[in-house]
Amino acid sequence: MHEGHRKRMYEKLKNNDGLLDHEILEILLFNAVPRKNTNPIAHNLLNTFGSLGGVFNATHRQLVTVDGVGESVAAYLKCIAECNRRISADFAGIAVIKNHSDLKRLAAARLRGKIAEFVEIYCMDKSGKVLRVHSFTNDDLNSVTINTNKITEVLVTDKPYGIAVAHNHLSGSSAPSQNDDKFTAQIQFLCSMNNVVFYDHIVYASDKDIFSYFDQGKLEKIKRELSFNRVLDDKIEKLFGPVK
Prior knowledge:
This protein is of the alpha+beta class and about 240 residues long. It is about 50% helix and about 15% strand. Helix 1 packs across helix 2, helix 2 (about 20-30) packs across helix 3 and helix 8 packs parallel to helix 9. The longest helix is centred in the first third of the chain and has 20 residues, at about 70-90. The chain is elongated, with a radius of gyration of 22 Å. The termini are far apart.
């Protein structure tokens, strides 16, 4: 019985015959679950996570809580998600950021549908071409932590002309927190130390609610206060007095 159904599903796939989301998942799961009807599992996954994007952004821990999804199925889905993430990174160079609206669209496209908080760093050349995307998450709904050493490693290893940073809020509001302000200040100082242009920090809550540190003038203020030379001069002045 299952063999006949699977054959019909494969025919629909080959013929581009308008497969629904649950049917796409069902076919994918044929390889992970060779001797069982995968239709109920596909429906359970979509009912739990809301969309294909939600399924493939789910953590391993979240996946195994779904009825019919064991360790091996969860690992299989995470492998597909990781392949997709790496393919997306490979094609990041196709994106060319010409203005801050382009940057917000890129952040929205990458952060839309995430079910954990992520921070992404977009490394660009002088023309605005995105050369590489670095994505970080703790698989937490409310926070993500990045060690400043990791940011320095990105700047030193990739040697971008400029970077932009984006992260998502799952709270429903893109209003930046005090921690977001501190994080933005840290990135600005590190960029200044490494002679890298810091274009913007985007906070994404939804397609209609996106906060830009550049647009709101907060980034300009942070840059004035936290350039490497400014901080160095202030420190020297405190130690030795004003230069005459």
